[in-house]
Design goal:
The chain has ten helices and eleven strands. It has helices at about 35-50, 60-65, 65-75, 95-110, 130-140, 195-200, 205-215, 240-250, 255-265, 270-275, and strands spanning about 1-10, 55, 75-80, 115-120, 145, 165-170, 175, 180-185, 190, 220-225, 265-270. Strands 1, 2, 3, 10 and 11 form a five-stranded parallel beta sheet that branches. A four-stranded mixed beta sheet has the order 4-5-7-6, with helices on both faces. Strands 8-9 form a two-stranded antiparallel ribbon. β8 and β9 (about 190) form a beta hairpin.
Length: about 280
């Protein structure tokens, strides 16, 4: 069974954990490392002949169109991560609509191809922002990967469906949802989807979880990471406590863990999995 490998294309200074000490107006003055880190990921994927879905921030696409065109021309899927990395829970419907329309437009202009997928910054579609799914459908997106079925201080819907499924939108259409992966233990969903969870947990446990989802539950897994997670030498931002731990812990392990997973699990794009799962819908 194939699983979805997804990359959230944002730079280290875009993360929500830094917003209290780093204002958006300062982003253009930061040392950009997105090109070198994406190139590292592309080299790894090419080495193992794996295709992935890249959820691209519009802010990045506007400044690095050649990078996005390169990703697309190498056969990877381009999807949308919004424009300015603003959590949906802090936006109105109008501002969200404008944000995703701007990002989608930039990406489609660069690739000359329709952008079908979306992932919210910080997985910020929760019970208070489910209205965003209707806006996504209205704007022409066919799939989303924003609803994390876990309990977390910033995001998540703990009792949400753990596997890819179709969400009907009250007569205004439907959208295919691809939740980041979890394994069920007693009454808890344990996240194994990647990102910080990949850095905190042993790669063997993540691979076991993917294998369990595939063989015991007969479902594909959805795994993600960020380019900055393969960059232990990135500039340090002055944050402390949990924010610092979440961002900087075990960065030097990410590349080897990614290689470990690719060698042991089958990966492809979200779109390829959608075609297999929902061919009649």
């Amino acid at each position: 069974m194939f699983n979805a490998l997804t990359i959230d294309v944002e730079d280290y200074f875009h993360v929500t954990a830094f917003e209290g000490v780093l204002e958006r107006r300062h982003w253009d003055g930061m040392e950009a490392r997105i090109e070198r880190n994406c190139e590292k990921i592309l080299q790894i994927l090419d080495e193992y002949k794996v295709k992935a879905t890249f959820f691209v921030l519009g802010w990045i696409a506007e400044r690095y169109p050649v990078l996005i065109r390169t990703i697309f021309n190498e056969g990877h899927e381009i999807a949308c991560h919004g424009f300015s990395h603003e959590m949906i829970t802090r936006q109105s419907k109008d501002s969200f609509r404008q944000d995703i329309a701007a990002a989608k437009g930039v990406l489609e202009d660069i690739t000359g191809s329709k952008v079908n997928g979306y992932r919210a910054p910080t997985f910020s579609i929760n019970t208070s922002s489910l209205w965003a799914l209707n806006v996504l459908c209205e704007q022409g997106f066919s799939f989303d990967s924003s609803i994390f079925p876990i309990r977390h201080d910033r995001y998540g819907i703990p009792d949400a469906n753990r596997f890819p499924h179709i969400i009907e939108l009250n007569g205004s259409g439907s959208i295919r949802e691809f939740p980041p992966s979890t394994v069920r233990f007693l009454k808890w969903n344990i996240p194994i989807a990647g990102g910080a969870y990949l850095r905190f947990l042993p790669a063997q446990f993540i691979a076991w979880g993917i294998n369990r989802i595939n063989k015991a539950e007969h479902q594909p897994a959805v795994i993600y990471l960020h380019p900055w997670e393969l960059d232990p030498e990135q500039p340090r931002i002055a944050v402390h406590g949990l924010s610092s731990v979440r961002h900087y812990f075990n960065l030097s392990s990410t590349e080897n863990k990614l290689r470990y997973l690719i060698k042991r699990c089958n990966f492809t794009t979200v779109n390829k999995i959608a075609l297999q799962l929902f061919r009649n819908n």
